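Hey, resending since the last one bounced:
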Amino acid sequence: MKVLVTGSAGFIGSALTLRLLERGDKVIGLDNHNDYYDPLLKEARLARHADHPNYTHLRLDLADRQGITQAFSSHQPQRVVNLAAQAGVRYSIENPLAYIDSNIVGFANILEGCRHHQVEHLVYASSSSVYGANTEMPFSVHDNVDHPLSLYAASKKSNELMAHTYSELYALPTTGLRFFTVYGPWGRPDMALFKFTKAILERGKLQVFNYGNHRRDFTYVEDIVEGVIRVLDKPATANPDWNGARPDPGSSRAPWRVYNIGNNNPVELLDYIKAIENSLGMEAEKELLPLQPGDVPDTYADVEDLVREFDYKPSMPLEEGIARFVSWYRDYYA
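The structure tokens again:
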């Protein structure tokens, strides 16, 4: 297939691009290379696949309507995976308009490109943050998710709603994937594993929010990529049993679906830190701080639909995943 991957210099996007190229697909990668975090890390990720004969790279912003229109016209992708977004819950409190430009305007441009070029399937990154104020565990795609706690979460919920209208009006198959705390080699420097590893190695102090009482469903990046590929290969279909009198939030009468991709095994944050300490062979100095605005105390993915419909469930043991990250980190920053 010819697949457009947005965010192809990003953490998940680069890993997905490598897998698609390995299996023989042609990939058009798109990334704006912004400086939300170290651009050199993005360039290093890109270097892993930039010279592949089946790879084409576009330095382009999702909010550039004319540029996105031209990209679809020139390259005619059969399927699209939209991973590009302004990420980060806390940054959305400081700079909310960045999320409107990338996650709302940019996503609308992707939808329009898919609509006008007969794309067979759009798969896009949503987030566990859409569950917001929900407390029923594990989080299910069949639960109502109308109480986000950050603009980042609201933008991801908006993506699901926008995709639904295009599936309904234009018969565009769309699937949203709610990722649960992705970690692993080549990860993002703004995320906990990266920050904690750096702080421990530099003998700094770890800022541990909610006094360490967070629980997170940490999911290894290669498990996420495997899930994305399985979903990409099976375009969304309408649910023939969907009933408007009792609407199911996880499916539709249109070719639209959402799924959780998580490890289905929440871990206490202090246990997570202990696993990092064990892998590094060093102890951390911790500064226990209160819950931050926008943060969700716990996440826990119900992946029953993913298992039933794709025969797949993430499975990387946390200790092994962290060890792989630490090995990469030591090598990359040697």
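The longest helix spans residues 96-116.

Sorry for the duplicate.
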